[in-house]
Automatic annotation (TrEMBL), chain B:
One BP term from GO: transmembrane transport
Residue span(s) of domain ABC transmembrane type-1: 67-273
Lineage top rank: taxon: Bacteria
UniProt record similarity statement: Belongs to the binding-protein-dependent transport system permease family. CysTW subfamily.
PANTHER family linked: ABC TRANSPORTER PERMEASE PROTEIN (PTHR42929:SF5), INNER MEMBRANE ABC TRANSPORTER PERMEASE PROTEIN YDCU-RELATED-RELATED (PTHR42929)
Transmembrane segments: 20-41, 62-86, 92-113, 154-175, 208-230, 250-272
Pfam families listed in its UniProt record: BPD_transp_1
Keyword tags: Cell membrane, Membrane, Transmembrane, Transmembrane helix, Transport
Membrane topology summary: Multi-pass membrane protein
Subcellular location: Cell membrane
Primary localisation category: membrane
Protein name: ABC transporter permease
Any one Gene Ontology cellular component term annotated for this protein: plasma membrane
């Protein structure tokens, strides 16, 4: 019996080794083909389309370097690539609080500011390991046909008497909803941090059964446009797109909350130098102006607005700085895991 | 390896048919056994060596709730699937074969349609402003939309629909193998239709119910797409929690531990059923 098993194992091992070698050779052969080309990864949908048109296509035209698109961004995949040393992504669009945390965990390459001009970049969204991609605001949007009256601010989302019906919020643990609950509960904007989680969850409990969560931008648009949710917390670019499509939506910029996406280069990226050149192009005034015009998200290059048509500037979060609140990315980066654990525990209750 | 083993290496006798088995075995070892071992390893080494991930999962009320949800949803889905599938399977078993193959075709056809598409279709039907609620409101049956989505009802409807073929197919096989004469004999001996069903048909079809039920239950335990889209956050199932741990929290140790627990539970269930029903009967033979 023992003999049989040993023999079987030996055979199995030999075949497995052979198969692994074959597989590895094939994989190597396919990845080593083009050294200069690079891969850009973002969240898909209208946002990545705008990034392709505004950044990748002009970059390819100017440099001859092909930019392959991949997506959606997946932090688990990014970590897996860095851990295994086989990094297929060169530039990735990520949320800024993740970028700060990931830099601390050693998942990112430092930005080479000799290749990426820093002078005109908004310092709020630039770090040693990240260059701003764009910044956005969470705004209050509603379906005009489904809601009675005009919601005026975040507090109205917690008023079930005045505004009955479903309301929609961002599903994942991220800067935004906690702050909205605290603001609605009367916490002054300058006293938000450190976040009082107990108070926030208590406030959220009052409307929990009337919340529909959205997990992605397209879902938030569908919920509001169909009236499935009468109003909700949306990314301003998604509301902008709804308005462009002629949907009957209202929007309040009162206490709009800014957060940012940034571009990072994963540690061990195969085309690091190319990636830096791409970052320079994406964060340039022209790249930022084009993207902002297409998406409704704000540029992170301070010179970009001068290159945009006046009416496009009007729909940007920059036009609504009155009462605007900057979500604290550093606070979130430091407390990401603790808040997430409580967030998901509360959701599952 | 002892000297004796090495001397005999060339003359080892493999079980008959082993060479035919080899490609599948290699595939399974390479893409299943090795990854599962890596998973196990990760669950006891990240972030530091020890059993803290398992302690966290088993000692925390939230995770306990998610485990409970997972088994609740899988059980409800399995029971409802059996109840819906049995009459269909019985009908298929006794139908003229030409007609039966058409009905089979319809059932199989649904399996060839993309899962995501089918789930989104259910969203359109079930939501508050969806087809079902609008029709009922227009007909004056209800005046407030029924909560059919983002809860257990939505998950059950969506998943039963997806699982039905996996229950019907094994069940038809078992039902067809039952000799119709046994039912006639029962009737001749004075059994009422219900008695004949309960004492003859049901026991004889048990292997099919068990095989299909196990498949549905096990598939439901690890389901991701449908619960994520049709369920609410308070019905979160294990697969969604694991995705969260891996993708958004980057806590791979905890995610691996949760995945490993799911695997162990599934295998334990399988072992239990093998004992109860017997391997031969499970595979369709009686």
């Amino acid at each position: 019996m023992k003999l049989i098993i040993t023999g079987v194992l030996a055979r199995l091992l030999a075949t497995t080794l052979l198969a692994t070698t074959l597989l590895a050779t094939t994989l190597l052969a396919t990845t080593a083909a083009k050294a200069e080309d690079m891969v850009f990864t973002s969240w898909g949908g209208t946002t990545q389309e705008a990034q392709t048109k505004s950044w990748a296509e002009p970059f390819t035209a100017a440099s001859g370097i092909k930019v392959m698109q991949d997506g959606p961004t997946d932090y688990g995949k990014l970590k897996a690539m860095v851990d295994s040393g086989s990094v297929n992504w060169d530039v990735v669009d990520v949320e800024m609080d993740f970028a700060i945390k990931a830099a601390k965990d050693g998942l990112l390459e430092p930005i080479d500011f000799a290749a990426v001009p820093k002078a005109d970049l908004d310092p709020r969204f630039t770090t040693d390991h990240a260059v701003g991609s764009f910044y956005y605001s969470f705004v209050l949007a509603w379906n005009k046909g489904a809601v009675s009256g005009e919601p005026a601010g975040w507090a109205d989302m917690f008023d079930l008497k005045k505004f009955p019906g479903k309301r929609t919020f961002y599903k994942w643990s991220a800067p935004g909803v906690i702050e909205i609950a605290l603001l609605a509960d009367g916490v002054p904007a300058d006293k938000l941090y450190p976040l009082d989680l107990d108070r926030a969850f208590k406030k959220l409990d009052t409307i929990k059964s009337d919340i529909v969560w959205w997990g992605g931008g397209a879902e938030s648009q569908q919920l509001i446009a169909s009236g499935e949710a009468t109003f909700g917390q949306l990314w301003n670019g998604r509301v902008f797109a709804l308005e462009k499509d002629g949907a009957d939506v209202g929007v309040s910029w009162n206490q709009n909350l800014t957060a940012a996406d940034v571009l990072v280069v994963p540690k061990g990226a195969k085309n690091k130098d190319t990636a830096m050149k791409f970052l320079a192009a994406a964060s340039s005034p022209a790249g930022q102006a084009k993207f902002a015009e297409a998406s409704g998200y704000a540029p992170i290059n301070t010179k970009a607005k001068a290159e945009m048509p006046a009416d496009a500037v009007k729909s940007l979060p920059d036009a609504h700085v009155d009462g605007q609140i900057n979500l604290d990315m550093n606070y979130w980066a430091a407390n990401r895991d603790t808040i997430a654990a409580r967030w998901y525990a509360w959701q599952a209750k | 390896m002892s000297v004796e083993t090495r001397r005999n290496f060339g003359t080892v006798r493999l079980p008959a048919g082993f060479n035919g088995l080899l490609p599948a075995l290699v595939l399974i070892v390479l893409f299943f056994v090795i990854p599962v071992l890596a998973l196990l390893l990760r669950s006891v080494t990240e972030p530091e060596p020890g059993l803290q991930n398992y302690a966290a999962l088993l000692g925390d009320g939230t995770y306990a709730r998610v485990f409970f949800n997972t088994f609740l949803v899988a059980s409800v889905v399995t029971i409802v699937t059996v109840l819906v599938a049995f009459p269909v399977a019985w009908m298929l078993a006794i139908m003229p074969s030409a007609l039966a193959s058409i009905v089979f075709g319809v059932i199989i056809l649904s399996m060839w349609t993309n899962l995501l598409t089918r789930t989104y279709a259910w969203m359109v039907l079930l939501q508050r402003t969806g087809v079902i609620n609008r029709t009922l409101i227009a007909a004056g049956v209800i005046d407030q939309p029924l909560p059919l989505i983002n809860n257990l009802t939505g998950v059950t409807i969506g998943m039963v629909y997806i699982m039905l073929p996996f229950m019907i197919l094994p069940l038809v096989g078992t039902l067809r193998a039952i000799d119709p004469m046994t039912l006639r004999a029962a009737a001749l001996c004075g059994a009422s239709p219900f008695q004949a069903f309960r004492r003859i048909l049901l026991p004889l079809s048990l292997p099919g119910i068990a095989a299909g039920g196990l498949m549905v239950f096990v598939m439901s335990l690890g389901y991701f797409v449908t619960p994520a889209l049709l369920g609410g956050t308070s019905n979160m199932m294990l697969a969604e929690m694991i995705a969260q741990m891996i993708q958004s929290l980057l806590n791979w140790g905890l995610g691996s531990a949760a995945a490993f627990i799911l695997l162990v539970v599934t295998m334990a269930l399988y072992a239990l059923q093998l004992r109860l029903v017997g391997a031969r009967r499970m595979s369709g033979g009686i």
